[in-house]
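Lab notebook page, bench 4
Experiment: in silico fold of construct C2
Operator: M.H.
Input chain length: 100 residues
Purpose: comparison with the prior construct
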Amino acid sequence: MKTKNNITTFEDFLNQEYGKIGTPKRDKYEQGFEAFKLGVMLQEMRKQQNMTQDQLAKKCGTTKTYISRIENDASDIRLSTLMRIIQEGLGGHLKLVVEP
């Protein structure tokens, strides 16, 4: 949908590029975007605590390479590992929301 200034909304752009929500291509995009957001969130939490990737990895029993891969959206992450990184490494709490 174009606005009166002939500007396309982001939602319209996504619909054009990836299809409507619920289509396989859009679902794949949305899943990738959620993984990207998770990596950014973990990186921001780590930086707020003035911690290096290596320091975080040592606190939660993983490697700097693995932390880097998560932060850069290059790795799937197990829920148990995510919980350990957030709780033991960053001192936070994980809350999940499941939407039907």
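Observations: Residues 10-89 form a domain with the 434 Repressor (Amino-terminal Domain) fold (CATH 1.10.260.40). The chain has one domain: 10-89.
Next step: discuss at group meeting.
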